[in-house]
Amino acid sequence: MNVTITVNGEVRSASVPPETTLLVLLREHFLLTGAKTGCDVGDCGACTVIVDGKAVNACLMLAGQADGRTVTTIEGLATREGLHPLQKVFEETGALQCGFCGPGVIMSSKALLDEIPNPTTAEIRNALAGNLCRCTGYQKMIEGVHEAAEMLQSTTTPATLATKTPATPALAALPQR
Amino acid sequence: MKRRGRGIASMWYPVGFTVAANPSGAVVKVNEDGTAVVLTGTVETGQGALGVLSQIAAEALGIAPNDIHIVSGDTDTCPMDTGAIASRTTYITGNAIAAAAAEARDTLFEVASQMLGVKTSQLEAKDHKIQVKGFPARSAPIADVALRAHLVNGTPPIGSASWNPPTVPLDPETGQGKPFGTYVYATQIAEIDVDDETGEVEVLRVTASHDCGTAINPMLVEGQIEGGVFMGLGFALQEEILFDKQGRQLNPNLTNYIMPTTLDMPVVESDIVDSYDETGPFGAKAVGEPSLVPTAAAITNAIYDAVGVRITALPATAERVLAAIKAKRAMEQKQIPA
Amino acid sequence: MKPFGYVAAQDSEHAVALLAEYGKGAKLLAGGTDLLADLKLTPHPPPAVMVDISRCADLKGIAITEAGLRIGAMVTHSEIVNSPLIRDTLPALAEAALSIGAVQTRNLGSIAGNLVTCVPSMDSGPTLLALEASVTILGPSGRRTIGLADLFVGPRKTSLAFGEILVEIVIPKRNVGKPTGFQKFGLRKGQALALVNAAASFWAGEGLFTEPTIALGAVAPTVIRAPKAEAYLAGRPVTEDAMAEAGRIAATEAKPITDFRATADYRRDLVAVLVKRALLAAHGRATPNRKDIAS
Amino acid sequence: MADDVMERDVSVLEKERVAPVETLRRSDEALRLPAVAPPTALPLEPPLVPQVGEQTRAVGLRAQRPDSRNHGLGLTRYIDDIALPGMLFAKIKRAGVASARIVRIDTSKAEAMPGVKAVLVGSEIPVNSFGPSLQDQPLLAAPIVRHAGDGVAAVAAVTEQIAEAAIDAIEVEYEPLPGVYDAIEALKPDSHKVHGGDTNVYASKIIKRGDVEKGFAQAYRIYEGRYYTPGIEHAPMEPFTSIADWDANGRLTVYASIGRITLARCDMSRTLGIPISRIRVIGTVVGGNFGGKNEIRHEPVLALLAKKAGRPVKGRFTRVEEFVASTIRHAFTMDYKTGVTKDGRLIARQVRMVLDGGAYCSFSETTLGKACILSTGPYEIPNSLAEGYVVYTNKTTAGSMRGFGAPQVCFAYESQMDEIARDLGIDPIEIRVRNMFREGSISSTGQVLHSVKVKESLENAVKKFGWEARS
């Protein structure tokens, strides 16, 4: 079947078998190998990409389900002007070790910061609970998301802040399980 | 109701293989511009070894870590290395690289001694210069020295070395001997809450103080400690491969093999002990494996502190902790005279 | 994955038509979080064709209707978590949704997908059951509405006939705003499967348990109610002791199994604790005027 | 299964927008070219390149890792991100039974499948055994299966999907054998012997210092306890993956996410029966190791498949294989007996430990040795005796894992230390300080210790934590 997606700002098409997942489409057909195959069943989060603004497991979405949608992968985060603050902070603080989970962690963090520009630690932990990491103990990642949030806010003028989607009520407002 | 507890555990851990030879070789080539290439047979497995090894080479050559490029993990191009195992990279590969860098530096000293008119023994490599000890103003940029070595003197500064920690085999009857070059030490303290109705243990924070000799890169040492506590926490409370009666794994997937998520990890307070081991490169030892060793005992000791039950079989799942609490209550009720 | 075909349905009617067209070889694909993972792991042959209903606009939406609070079948767990309407009227539903998987799976997985897996440990089930939700089913012969309890037949088995799809979940108007608590216990805090989950709901007019309902997950072949515990509470003064006793009674109503995750005994212990805590959580939300607002 | 896939009636599928089963016919073996180039202009400014300037020290800097920028950009090339032209995909069929004899393997259906380029069974491997100390592990079981994760046959095909279908099409007939699934059971004389012979014990260790019996006789109190720790999976986020590629001169290049390339090369040379110098191993960036990627797993199998097919072959473990067909941490059963004086000094300790080694040796000997040596804890104990045994069982092979037995014995010795402190009414900090190694202390093996910092670590931790003594 033919699938057309907007990936990292470019419209791309591919003819793939229907059972092709978004992950395989990205990695094998578009050669965007940033998203990783860690478990292939939605447990590890190494394949996390952003589809229409939402972080999803690319291994659990069929390419056909992504047809017509907008996908952002780790390769689409940095611009010609430079690194995304998450990438900047993560590299400076050693937030990634082996780095295999990194693209997924960064994309989950990006989706969080798009939705909640100034998240609490609880919100960050909640947003990254679907990204397993065996190296770091998550600590420098969590600190890094805070730091990146500050960087993003300091570079955002109040006017552009106001045009952003209103922040959803903080998840932390719900009682802890 | 939640009950708070604290527990402590200390440990020791050796660096490198048990007696068996586990050498590392290294080649350091100083480029014409005073930067350097290091060849090592070890492989980056995520711990940041190549960064640490760059810093060791840079220190020995008096240049910056970013001036070093490492070529690694190729049996055709790299000298033999036993590999990323047994927390040996910083200590053993590091020693080999420091020695290889010193050899390359000696060539630079010979060239510089002609340029500066002093004996090689009076020279040191520092701040991207070869300079006279005690008279840093009398110096030559390392780039000039290197270029001269390559193109004028015809002595490209290349050093190679290998290192294997000295050991004494263990007596087969008694096990007496010197199995390792050196050891590292650590203490961790855990603070936890135990829910005495469900048995659930929540780790609130872990303080981890580790001796790793000189911390070549404290940021990476912290990373190892934080990751070690994570793995230790999984070992203490969650992780277990389960088998059925026919020897087949029951939970061979990340859905049912439970390891900590961000929501399960406490804050880790890292501390690096002031330490210097003269047998290691610039006083460094190791931190990779040891960081997970004491965590489980610190946590189970904290469980005892909180609810008075001793968990002797890991993992201390909520079910096991609750069972122990109930057994203790039953015992106490028996002991109360009617 | 093994080869299969794929076709996207435009709306629920189209989906029913496609199911009829492709017959037994067809399978509905909702969020895919369970189905695709299963397909990758199972040795069984895949369906011949996947009928993707995740894009059907008429299966979306959360709104108050004549009948009550309507949640479209394809509403994702994240949409429930973030719905101001649900957070305001039935925060326990949002808590239950938040306890499912992780952000990535909550963004994909749908409420109906969770219900029709019919696994006993589903986290959407207990709260909806405690709130006496009904489900609307669309099939070749039209629409029908059944109580949620009647959807659940057994582990991984629903009462949906072939060719039918679940289109919406409705919480009756009388229960919109009813104080409800949800509790879940898993082997870890993130990405946890429930060892036990429980929901409890009651009005606390005049300090008495009024219309109490209790539902339990992962302790029987399907999500179940705990009628004896409910009967014990009905009309009794709202006290913590009563909640604890209801928990103990509910534990006797549970029929848990022992598996590698936990023993039946431990699950029973958890039922007692979680029911009590769910009742406490509901009580925390009970305000005397709430019922008037809802009706 | 494969028949099912191949012969499925496709008429039902040939409807609008349904493009089914084409994969099996598709066989697009050509290398795909990139469709989307990353929009990042490289290198980024400011560059992460040599900067000449003042630099007083390199050691001690919180320096940025050289790989961190590529990590953050998703540009680090892990092995699964590498594809060679014409590369095939391999799958290994796992036994699924823990103890059996293979009576018959029929690979004919798999070989006949379109897209399948090579099939391999154990009998075709020149030297079908490997291991870092004992070479007791087959690459593909033949004819005895010793644990459920043992491979029994392998396939290389043009797609992963076809390879999967092909291993399903391989028929294996097993004769069930008795099995042993518990380390303590495995010690019994009448237990099933996993590797034949008269015992399942394949390594033992004694570390002995002083005279424990004398020590116990002098003790004020003696504490005894049994401690157990389970098997643990390394669970690196990157599954074990390798690529084998021959050149026309018969030189083999293996790309592998492996931490010990030199050992890997020796093992490959031995199993393939070719000189070490004809093999090049390129260790790719390892996506998490923790001891689980210290030795070969399937590389010679990939090499032989590649040789048969005349094309490079990649093999990537599924997450399930990562659990059942890699190694795990040894489960330990430890009996600790410790004699103490009235003021809490440890004067004698006897430790007996049994390690569940699983089906093959791997790094068991090293693990056992370290565990025995370290079993005293960081404490000076004049009389100590540690004896350890590692036994075969029909379970997943236990090998090296971060800590090599140290986490297991630390759990035991520090749990018991806590018990002793509480029983004697001594503060847990104080009892440790009284017994701890100091500069020049003698270890359990008689080694004189230098740069001993355990007391400092304890003091620092206590201070940082804010531990206050309770009365």
TrEMBL record, chain A:
<feature type="domain" description="2Fe-2S ferredoxin-type">
    <location>
        <begin position="1"/>
        <end position="77"/>
    </location>
</feature>
<keyword id="KW-0411">Iron-sulfur</keyword>
<dbReference type="Pfam" id="PF01799">
    <property type="entry name" value="Fer2_2"/>
</dbReference>
<dbReference type="GO" id="GO:0016491">
    <property type="term" value="F:oxidoreductase activity"/>
</dbReference>
<keyword id="KW-0001">2Fe-2S</keyword>
<dbReference type="InterPro" id="IPR012675">
    <property type="entry name" value="Beta-grasp_dom_sf"/>
</dbReference>
<dbReference type="InterPro" id="IPR001041">
    <property type="entry name" value="2Fe-2S_ferredoxin-type"/>
</dbReference>
<dbReference type="GO" id="GO:0046872">
    <property type="term" value="F:metal ion binding"/>
</dbReference>
<dbReference type="InterPro" id="IPR002888">
    <property type="entry name" value="2Fe-2S-bd"/>
</dbReference>
<protein>
    <submittedName>
        <fullName>(2Fe-2S)-binding protein</fullName>
    </submittedName>
</protein>
<keyword id="KW-0479">Metal-binding</keyword>
<dbReference type="Pfam" id="PF00111">
    <property type="entry name" value="Fer2"/>
</dbReference>
From TrEMBL, chain B:
<protein>
    <recommendedName>
        <fullName>Aldehyde oxidase/xanthine dehydrogenase second molybdopterin binding domain-containing protein</fullName>
    </recommendedName>
</protein>
<dbReference type="InterPro" id="IPR037165">
    <property type="entry name" value="AldOxase/xan_DH_Mopterin-bd_sf"/>
</dbReference>
<dbReference type="InterPro" id="IPR046867">
    <property type="entry name" value="AldOxase/xan_DH_MoCoBD2"/>
</dbReference>
<feature type="domain" description="Aldehyde oxidase/xanthine dehydrogenase second molybdopterin binding">
    <location>
        <begin position="2"/>
        <end position="266"/>
    </location>
</feature>
<dbReference type="Pfam" id="PF20256">
    <property type="entry name" value="MoCoBD_2"/>
</dbReference>
<dbReference type="InterPro" id="IPR052516">
    <property type="entry name" value="N-heterocyclic_Hydroxylase"/>
</dbReference>
<dbReference type="GO" id="GO:0016491">
    <property type="term" value="F:oxidoreductase activity"/>
</dbReference>
TrEMBL record, chain C:
<keyword id="KW-0274">FAD</keyword>
<dbReference type="GO" id="GO:0016491">
    <property type="term" value="F:oxidoreductase activity"/>
</dbReference>
<keyword id="KW-0285">Flavoprotein</keyword>
<protein>
    <recommendedName>
        <fullName>FAD-binding PCMH-type domain-containing protein</fullName>
    </recommendedName>
</protein>
<dbReference type="InterPro" id="IPR036683">
    <property type="entry name" value="CO_DH_flav_C_dom_sf"/>
</dbReference>
<dbReference type="InterPro" id="IPR016169">
    <property type="entry name" value="FAD-bd_PCMH_sub2"/>
</dbReference>
<dbReference type="InterPro" id="IPR002346">
    <property type="entry name" value="Mopterin_DH_FAD-bd"/>
</dbReference>
<dbReference type="InterPro" id="IPR051312">
    <property type="entry name" value="Diverse_Substr_Oxidored"/>
</dbReference>
<dbReference type="InterPro" id="IPR016167">
    <property type="entry name" value="FAD-bd_PCMH_sub1"/>
</dbReference>
<dbReference type="GO" id="GO:0071949">
    <property type="term" value="F:FAD binding"/>
</dbReference>
<keyword id="KW-0560">Oxidoreductase</keyword>
<dbReference type="Pfam" id="PF00941">
    <property type="entry name" value="FAD_binding_5"/>
</dbReference>
Automatic annotation (TrEMBL), chain D:
<dbReference type="InterPro" id="IPR016208">
    <property type="entry name" value="Ald_Oxase/xanthine_DH-like"/>
</dbReference>
<dbReference type="InterPro" id="IPR036856">
    <property type="entry name" value="Ald_Oxase/Xan_DH_a/b_sf"/>
</dbReference>
<feature type="domain" description="Aldehyde oxidase/xanthine dehydrogenase a/b hammerhead">
    <location>
        <begin position="73"/>
        <end position="178"/>
    </location>
</feature>
<dbReference type="GO" id="GO:0016491">
    <property type="term" value="F:oxidoreductase activity"/>
</dbReference>
<dbReference type="InterPro" id="IPR000674">
    <property type="entry name" value="Ald_Oxase/Xan_DH_a/b"/>
</dbReference>
<dbReference type="Pfam" id="PF01315">
    <property type="entry name" value="Ald_Xan_dh_C"/>
</dbReference>
<protein>
    <recommendedName>
        <fullName>Aldehyde oxidase/xanthine dehydrogenase a/b hammerhead domain-containing protein</fullName>
    </recommendedName>
</protein>
<dbReference type="Pfam" id="PF02738">
    <property type="entry name" value="MoCoBD_1"/>
</dbReference>
<dbReference type="InterPro" id="IPR037165">
    <property type="entry name" value="AldOxase/xan_DH_Mopterin-bd_sf"/>
</dbReference>
<dbReference type="InterPro" id="IPR008274">
    <property type="entry name" value="AldOxase/xan_DH_MoCoBD1"/>
</dbReference>
<dbReference type="GO" id="GO:0005506">
    <property type="term" value="F:iron ion binding"/>
</dbReference>
